Amino acid sequence: MTKALVLFAHGARAASWAAPFERLRDLTAARLPDCAVRLAFLELMEPRLPEAVSSLVAEGVEEVTVVPVFLGQGGHLLRDLPMLADGLRAAHPGLRLNVAGAVGEDPGVLAAMTDYCVRSVAAPE
């Protein structure tokens, strides 16, 4: 595979916190059979983004798209992720690295979350 998708999440101390992200990774991988799909974290969990990308490059991947699985563009995405991306580009000059916007800012994602919230209120008790 020459392309990869990295789902980039914050990370937490509790291992169970990663379970929904692992499910998202698996569901995404099932829909992208010709693309390596990985999960990476900013902190507190492994692998961190630099290690995940380095591993992909070692596997021969030439293009990586990073999708921040965050609800909004807070400090981590405004400061930390651009610094990480710059470091990855410097470490892997032949790599094409794309960084998407925060998943929670996508209109389709917001619509799905809104639908869920509305169903929660409308659900019988």
TrEMBL record:
Keywords: Lyase, Metal-binding
Coiled coil: none
One Pfam assignment: CbiX
Top-level taxon of the source organism: Bacteria
Record keyword Lyase present: yes
Keyword Chaperone found: no
Name this polypeptide is given: Sirohydrochlorin chelatase
Organism placement in taxonomy: Bacteria, Pseudomonadati, Pseudomonadota, Betaproteobacteria, Burkholderiales
